[in-house]
Amino acid sequence: MDNPFRPTAGATPPEVIGRSGLLDEFEYGLQLGSGAPGLLSIFTGARGIGKTVMLGAAHDLAQEHGWAVVAETATGTFMGRIGEKMRRIIQELDDQPESRRRITGISIAGFSVTSQLSPERQVDWWELGETLLKLLDERGTGLLITVDEIHAADRAELAQLAANVQHFIQDRLPIALIFAGLPSAVSDLLNEGVATFLRRADKIDLHAAAVRDVETSFTETFAAAGITIDPDLVHKAATTTGGYPFLIQLVGYFLWREAENNNGGLSSAAVDRAIAAAIRRNERVVIEAALAAASAKDQEILHAMAIDDGPSTAGDIVRRTGSRPTLVAKYRTRLLAAGLIESTGHGKTDFAIPGLREYLRKNQPH
Asked: Is 19 helix (H, G, I), strand (E, B) or coil?
């Protein structure tokens, strides 16, 4: 049996733990068609929490129901790329008989434009979308557009997309839109007047899975493969993940590798090696990538927070850094926007990425 764990950003794992029911409204909307509430959704949560995986699950559901899918990441000029993909789907449909049919598995390469859409191109984009949606409507299907990492998006492009989708919904055309992004970016988007209608979206805040569910999943997965592991060691491994999907995949992956190298058995030493390897990979892939754009002052604030075992108060950070409260407030806002910390209420903040506190403690500035 091959290793079932997939610790790659966005890769679909063998089991999405603790997420059952989150796409029920979306699936019901696919059956109802235009205007159904679940067809407008936003996934939000910390890095490594599984937003991209949930988008993938939505893609699969849409295609199972015969809908065409256009998936994009919110890097520059993504509206142009969406438009080109819609144009190619129209070409694909024009080559097919006009009879009612299910449109599944259409795969189209991306195409970028060199600048933001001009007013003329915006009109062209809207007409293109209307043409495609009418073709799909005739066939009893529709179009799902997903946009990942909206925290990296140009706000003007997001506004263009939101405005066009709103018009399609008003015209009762079969359109679904799902965004995914960090919590602060989603909050900013919903508070902007240009995207007011998105406040009606089904906002799905992804949280860590319960450790007991991770423990059950590990136990069942390893037992099914004939891998022997003591229940206490399963508990230790599950606890290490904190319920974060990416860490669940990492820990599971390295446990499986250890079992392969030890004739299907997992000793205490093997589990410790797997956990250590998973932590190192998480630091490289998630934590160091997230810290790459952090300034020296950002990192000073983060190191001041790392002293605490739990949430930090603004007063503690001011005292430890010797900075003015207004300056701490400014950098707190920056770190929230970057998805490195999260608000825990009552003026307190905590780390938003699992393992970040421990990483900072191990890597104190000289």
From this structure: coil
